[in-house]
Structures are given as C-alpha cells and as structure tokens.
Amino acid sequence: MPRDRGGPRRPAAAVQSGGFQQLRERAKALTLHADPRLLVINKPAGLASQPGRGLDEDVVSLMQGQARDRDRPVRLVHRLDRETSGVMVMARTAREAARLSALFAGHGVMKAYLALVHGDATGLRDRIDVPLKPMRTARAALVQVAGPNDPDAHSASTGLQVLATSAGASLVLATPKTGRMHQIRVHLAHAGHPLLGDHHYGGPLAVSGIRVTRIMLHAWWLDLPDAMDQVTRWSAPVPEDFATLCDRLGLGLRHGTYR
Question: Which domain holds residue 72?
C-alpha cells in the first residue's frame, strides 16, 4: 500500500489579488508538501494550471512568485483543467521534471478523481474504452468521441466506480488509465452521465433546483513513485462547494468516507 500523505483537511483558499505577503500566504495555503525537488499543491477550482492569454493568475506564476529560490523555476509536469480542483505535483529541478514527465507520459502515476454526474448512474459500467479526438471550435479546444478507424483517434481508457446515487445525480470515482484532454468529462458524457456544470459536454447547470456554478470534478489523490519506486499517495481534501452539493443532493459525502 502506498503511504498516504494528505494535506490539511480544510477547503482550498480563495484566489484573491494582493501584495507579496498575501501572495505568499495564498501559495502556502495551497501547498500540501514542499521539498527541494517536489512541490505538491491543492489547486482550487478557477485557477489555471499555466499562464495564458487573458489570465490574471495561474498555478505556475503563483507558486514561483513565493518561492524562496526565485532562480529555481517551478516546472509543470501535468495539468488540471481550470475548473477542476485537486492535487497537482510540480518539479523544482530539471532532473525531477524529466522523471515526473516520463512517469505521467508512461501512465506510471495512478490517479483518482471524484465526479458529480447527472442522473442515476447505477448501471454505469466499470470501464470505458473509447477513443477520443480533438474538436476545434471557434471558442474553445474540445474533445469528441472518435470512431475506431479515425486517423485522428487516440486511445483512452477510464475506470469507474459508482459511490452513491440519488434521483438527480451520482457520485463517481474515476481512475483514468490514459491522460487525454477532457477524458473523464467526455467518457462520462458518452455514457449518458455528463458532469454537473459541464455545459460544453451536455452537463446541466442546475440539478434538483440547485444551481451548479462550476464543473464538479475533483482530483482526489494520486500515487507517485519516487526515484526508488516507493509509492506515496498524495491527496487533496474535497473542497467545500463540492462536499456541500453532495450533501444537498443526498449523496452523503464526508471527508474520509470513501477510499
């Protein structure tokens, strides 16, 4: 069993503007673990993983801005969608960045997400193996299901476990075996259970009379091997908005309920 290394059991801090001291405090609040090689954070929903056009703030800039050693860059080795919350790892050295990037690219990191989906997902199968391909639109880069002989298709596989159901929604544990963009979102939509708040892929913006303000996907934990192949489980506490919505929908989520 991997060692379980979670962060403090509190919701992620809100991202706000402010001076250097506030920046350091915000970055510290997001940090689950830091050492000379590795940085593990709990990314809040709404914060982009990397710099981009029209973004006021992002994970890389925020964490680099408060680093003690400004000459040692924070290196991104994987990404979460802007509206997805949860655990992310970053490298502090070029060697560690190369090692971690190879692990993620080679599917050597086991990851688990909590997904709130539309409808009663009792009949959801335990694995979806459906290829995906890019779908370019005028406003966003999206993904769609591809046919088996489509030259643009990329294999994609997601393990699924239904944890709880109610009349209008279900709580699903998703373990992606591959790392395609929007993979969990598209696979669940293809199965007839889009994520709550995910309007790009058919997810409702309200359920049982309750407004949903973001895509309800949380990167819960990941199992990360070190250089000696000893695995540590890094976990991020479920954010308050996610847990509250689960409770209001009668899904009974509590910190530590599911493992």
Answer: 3-248
